[in-house]
Structures are given as C-alpha cells and as structure tokens.
Amino acid sequence: MSIETLLCPADQAGVARAAALLRQGEIIALPTETVYGIAADARNGSAVKKIFAAKGRPQDNPLIVHIDDVGMLPGLVSEFPERARLLAAAFWPGPLTIIMPRGPEVADECCAGLDTVGIRMPSHPVVRQVIEASGCAFAAPSANRSGRPSPTTAQDVWADMQGRLPLILDGGPCAVGVESTVVSVVGAKPTLFRPGHITLEDLERALGEEVELSPAILEKLAEGEVARSPGMKYKHYAPRADITILEGTLEQFKAYVEAHAAQDPACLCFAGEGAKLAPFPCVEYGREGDGDDQARHIFRSLRALDEQGDRVVYARCPRKDGVSMAVYNRLIRAAAFRVVAL
Ligand code: TXA
Ligand code: MG
Questions:
Q1: DSSP bridge partners of 8
Q2: Ligand located closest to 140 CA
Q3: Residue 332: Cβ-neighbour burial (10 angstroms; 0-12, 13-18, 19+)
Q4: Residues 15/168, Cβ–Cβ less than 8 Å
Q5: Residue 233: pLDDT band with limits 50, 70, 90
Q6: What is the pLDDT of residues 13-46, one digit of tens each?
Q7: Which H or E run contains 268?
Q8: Residue 41's pLDDT is what?
C-alpha cells in the first residue's frame, strides 16, 4: 500500500480538505485532546474498513464513534441510558467514551460483532470543526500502527502512517496524552474498561454510585479470561525496547540498575531524575506523583526510547490511582506486564 500523504496545518483549508475526504469515504488523521486519531465516516462500512487496513488492526477490536452534539445520537445508539446522560452532562465534550446499546446506522465494521457502541464527544476544536464541516459522525481509533504507542504529535502519526492515508492534519501536541476513559453503562453495574484523564473517582462522583474496575486494567488477564473491552487483550503500546518496571524508591531503582549495568540498560524515569541516574542514558516521562504530566509525556517518551535504539530499559513505576492509573495501565502493556517489586 502506498498513497501520497499530505501533512498540513489544521487551519481552515486543512479542515475543509479533511471534511471533503471524509464525505468521499476516505480516511484522514487528525488531532484530538487525547491522542491523534484516524477518522472515517462511521456509517460507511467500506470507509471504516480502510482504517483497519491502514493500522493493521485486528477486525475483532471495535472502534469509538465521535460526535459533536448529543443531537447526533439517534441512529447511532438505540438508547441513551440515564447513567450515560449523567456522564455526558458531567464530562462531554471531553476525554470520555461511553459504551451504549448500538443503533442501526453504525456500520457493522465499527462494532466487531458486538451489540454495543462506544461514543465520545471530543473537546478539541479541530475534531469538532471537522465533524461540523463533514456532517459525519466518525469512527476514530488512535493513529498508530496497531501495537505501537499512540501518537501525540503529527510527526509521530507521519512516522507510522505515511503512505497509508491521504491526509494528516497537524494541530500540535495533544494536551491529555493518553486515550479517553472508556466506561460501559450497558451491564448491571457501570464498569471502567480503560482508565484515562477522567478518573474512577470522577465517574463515581458524577454517577453517585460505585463503578467496577475491569480486571484487565491493572494486571494481565488470566489465560482463557474474556476481555469485555477487546482492546485490553492485545499487546499494546509496545516499543521495540525490552522494558521492565521497577517498583520502589529512586535509591532502590538506581541500585538495581547499577547491579544490571552489564546489560547496558537505559532508564525511563521521572522529570529531573536523569542527572541522578548518570551515566545511564535516560528518557524522562513527567513529574513524579503528577499523573497529568506523566500522561502528557508517556507515549512520546516510549517512542523516544525506540529512536535511541533497541535495548534493555528499566522504568520508574507510577502510582496506580487517579490519572496515574491510566499511565500505569499503558506502561504495564508496554512492559509486557514485567514488574519487579524492589
Ligand atoms: O481518546 C480516544 O479514545 C482515541 C481518540 C482518537 O479519540 N481513540 C482511541 O480509539 O483510543 P482506539 O480504537 O485506539 O481504542 C478504543 C478502545 C479499544 O480498547 C476498544 O476495544 C474499546 O475502546 N471499545 C470500543 N468499542 C467498544 C465496545 N463497544 N465495547 C467495549 N470496548 C470497546
Ligand atoms: Mg489505540
């Protein structure tokens, strides 16, 4: 597959070009507040198929449908449940995807055989302008090749997708940095499927009830266990480096890395720690204890490790609560679930 790819600013002309391509059944990449996405008209099955081909994405992993107004919901969902209304009122537009009963107009290719659909109303002005100009609700996964870290800059999209789609809109780096929180309101209890900038506590406060944590979030699924959110079962965010997370203090971390110096390791550490870990090469991924800052940097830092070359990497461990839960969730996948308690 080789298509001529245009990388252009997300200005008025860029938005108009993106909207025209979407209406023609093409796919395009664009910035959102979370990560960059690849969009296709969610009602057009053959357009949606192109996303799977461009990403190399498994067919059984469903896509999120993006809207800019709740007035777009009829036809996309068969019901707008009360819990979804509460969450939408609290967090839309913003980095929250709500899994609801699927409506008849969503292309089968978006849903991977499920009778549900994930809907998100993003806040980023460029996505909103493209939805408005095209009139399309669009399916949009993250704009990485399947299995790679999600892209948070247009240059990272270019590195993965150049030659695979006709247009990438450059809207600068993404503010949130990790993908949207995914919550299901379909079962008996609301369930968090993927942690993000909107935390478990935020969801519980808005709903006034407990939200279940899907078991795949903080640990590896047991053999034979079924992921309710298909994306959770795949190897994900995997840089080419061989990462192990070390859980402990900076002093313990440094001692462990020094003891393994023969492996010629690099470190994935918190902001400001690089100098203390010399002479080992370091990539920093945000301030210790600051989930928002870590979220903004984690994917770029994983890509930066690859740009430095294949090697053994030891990573500092983020907290597992608040926004850091989202960072930990991505990092354990990047590390193939290798965590050592010091
Ligand atoms: O922030 C985001 O959500 C970004 C931007 C581009 O909007 N999109 C994104 O899409 O992260 P993607 O395809 O990379 O991740 C979608 C996740 C997957 O883990 C998928 O399995 C899950 O949402 N998902 C989608 N529809 C679902 C459904 N009906 N039931 C359960 N999980 C679903
Ligand atoms: Mg993704």
A1: 169
A2: 1
A3: buried
A4: no
A5: low
A6: 999 999 999 999 999 999 999 999 999 999 999 9
A7: strand 266-269
A8: 98
Atom of ligand 1 minimally distant from the CA of 102: 29
pLDDT band at 235 (very low <50, low <70, confident <90, very high): low
φ/ψ of 248, rounded to 5, equals 170, -170
- What residues does ligand 1 touch, defined as CB less than 6 Å away? 32, 34-35, 37, 61-64, 95, 97, 99, 114, 116-118, 120, 140-142, 179-180, 182, 193-194, 229-231
Vertex 299 angle, CA 294 and 304, to 5°: 110
The structure's pTM equals 0.96
In this structure, the dihedral spanned by the alpha carbons of residues 153, 311, 258 and 320, taken in order and rounded to 10 degrees, is 50
pLDDT tens, residue by residue, 249-284: 999 999 999 999 999 999 999 999 999 999 999 999
Q: Across the strands, what pairs with 247? A: 341
Q: Which ligand is nearest to the CA of 77?
A: 1
* Greatest extent of the chain over all pairs of C-alpha atoms, in Å: 60
Q: How far apart are CA 27 and CA 143, in angstroms?
A: 11
Q: Which residues make Cβ contacts (< 8 Å) with residue 329, sequence separation at least 6?
A: 194, 195, 217, 218
Calculate how far, in angstroms, residue 96's C-alpha sits from the geometric centre of ligand 2. 14
Reported as half-sphere exposure (CB side, CA atoms, 13 A), residue 17 has a value of 18
Closest CA to 154 of 137, 167, 136: 167
